[in-house]
Amino acid sequence: MTTDFDIVIAGGGLNGPALALALAGAGLRAAVIDPRPADARAADEFDGRAYALAVASQRLLRALGLWGGLEGESQPIREVKASQGQPGEGAAPFFLHFDSAEIEEGPVGYMLEDRFLYRALLTGMDGSVTHMPGVSVISQDIGAAHVTAGLSDDRQITAQLLIGADGRSSGVARRAGIGRQGWDYGQTALVAAIDHELPHEGIAHQYFMTTGPLAILPLPGNRSSVVWSETDANAGAIKSLPDEEFLRVLEPRFGGFMGKIALAGQRFSYPLSLSLAESYTAPRIALVGDAAHGVHPIAGQGLNLGLRDVAALAQVIVEAARRGEDIGAVDVLERYQQWRRFDATSLALGMDTVNRLFASENPVIAGLRGAGMGAVTAIPGLRRRFMRQAAGLSVDPMPRLLNGQAL
C-alpha cells in the first residue's frame, strides 16, 4: 500500500528532529509529531539550559549542515578536571585531568545552549520534514506492511516505521509492550547558570561528593552551567530557597576559584533515575534517546547517547531503503538494536557504578577511588583512552554521521 510517510517520529525534542533531518537528507519522507506547541522554546533569551556535546555529536551536527550556524554560539571544552570531595577545600591528593591538546581531534567537546540547538533543528526541518506541533501520537496499529498512528487531533497517518523519541515515559514503547527496568537514585539534579568574575579558560570541573556529583561546565563568556546532584531531601530544601539563599548554599561547594558568582537565568530541577527499555525495537517500532535509555547525568552523556542512536538508526534505515528492503521489517530493525543496545547499556551501567562508588563514605573505598583517579592521570595511554571515550570517538563500528560523513 501507499503510505503517507516512510517514517513517523513521535517526539519533537532534540533526537527526533535530528533523526528526521538525517533521513530527509537521504530522500526519505519523514514526519515529526511534536506534542509541544509551535512556539515552544521560541524565546531567544538565555535560560541556563545547555548540553555538553561530545566531538562525535558535533560531527553529526556538521554532517546535518547545522554546525556552521552553531559554532559561534558554542564554548569548546579544552580541559576536564575531576576530583572527589568538596570544591573550595583545596586540591584533592588524586584527581583526573584531561587536556584536549593530547588528542588530535581538538576540544574534548562543546557546550551549547538548548535555545540555539533547538532553534537550529527547527529551522533545519523547515521545507524538508513535515513537522506537526501541538499534536501527540495516542495510538498505533501495526499491519503487515505499515503502521497506522492515531493522533490527538483525530487524524490517522501511515508509515513503514514508527520511531519512539518520546522520552522515558514513551507511549510508543508502552503501546508496543516494551517493558522497562531501572531504579531511582534518590537524587535530584539542580541545574542553573552562573555568572562569575574570573574566566573559566574552557575548563569543565566535576566534583564527586557523597551526596552526588557537582559539574561546573563552561559557557561562552564568564558564565558556567552548574549541574548539582543532591539527595532528594537536600535538593527539595535547596530548591525552595530564594535566589540569594540558594547562592549562599552553592558558594562553598562552588569554591572561590572563579571569584564572585551570581545567578544567570532560571533554576531547574530533575529527579534522577536509571531507566532502560527491555528492547529497542518491536514490529515496525524503534526507540531512540531517553525512550530507550534514561541515564544519570554524570559526564553529560544523555544527549550524546541519543545522538549515537540517531546516527546508527538513520544509517540502518537508509542502507536498507537503498537495497530495496522493508525498513520496518524485524530483521532490519534488529541490526539497529545489535549496534546500539550493548554500548548504551554498558555506558548507563558504568555511570551508575561511578555514582554509587563515589557515594560511599567507606574510607577504604575512598582510598581506592583516589588511587584509581591518580593512575588514570599518570598513565598517558590510559588517559587518552578515557578522553576518546568521553569524546564519543570509541564507538565501534562508528556510524558515518558521527564521523561527519553524509549517509
Low-confidence stretches: none
Q: Please tally the β strands and state the result.
A: 19
- Beta percentage is 25-35%
Describe the largest sheet.
8 strands, mixed
Shape: globular
Average pLDDT confidence is: 87
User: What would you call the structural class?
Assistant: alpha+beta
Cα-to-Cα separation, first versus last residue: 27 Å
**Gyration radius, to the nearest Å?**
21 Å
Total helical segments: 11
Element order: H for helix, E for strand: EHEEHHEEEEHEEEEHEEEEHHEEEEHHHH
What's the helical proportion of residues? 25-40%
Question: Secondary-structure map with pairings?
Answer:
Layout: E1 5-10, H1 15-25, E2 30-34, E3 50-54, H2 55-63, H3 67-70, E4 75-77, E5 79-84, E6 95-99, E7 109-113, H4 114-125, E8 130-133, E9 137-142, E10 147-151, E11 156-164, H5 171-175, E12 180-196, E13 203-209, E14 212-219, E15 223-231, H6 232-239, H7 243-254, E16 261-277, E17 281-282, E18 285-287, E19 293-294, H8 302-322, H9 330-359, H10 363-378, H11 380-390
